[in-house]
Amino acid sequence: MLMGKSEIRARIPHSGNMCLLDQVLSWDDGRICCLASSHRDEHNPLRRDGRLRAVCGVEYAAQAMALHGRLRSGSGAPPRRGYLASLREVSCLVAYLDEVAGDLLVEAEQLLAEGSRVIYGFVVRGDGHELLSGRAAVVLEGWA
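RE: above sequence
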């Protein structure tokens, strides 16, 4: 483990139960791999009617992307706010994430970075299977 939950919370704006990631397993300039167990938490803020739909995996991936961007910018640089602008080729291979017994492996790979636009590919896996995948376009604001 490279980084735990408290270090993740210090780097992304998500707080309390909304910080969904538990650990950073690896990262480099082009990708990040994180671990999450919050899909099993009954108090997960994304649950509706007691269930966590697979599409909520997009938020897990978005947090991994935000964390990757923050890690790439270095500790001295102020954070840039990013907004999810679009999703492409999203494929949910299960209906619910809360049915996954093991931890989630959340991977994001930066495919393009051009000015204020960033595109990531992402995959969420659990119990040895791909659960969700797709691409996300993020638009960054100026320096905060």
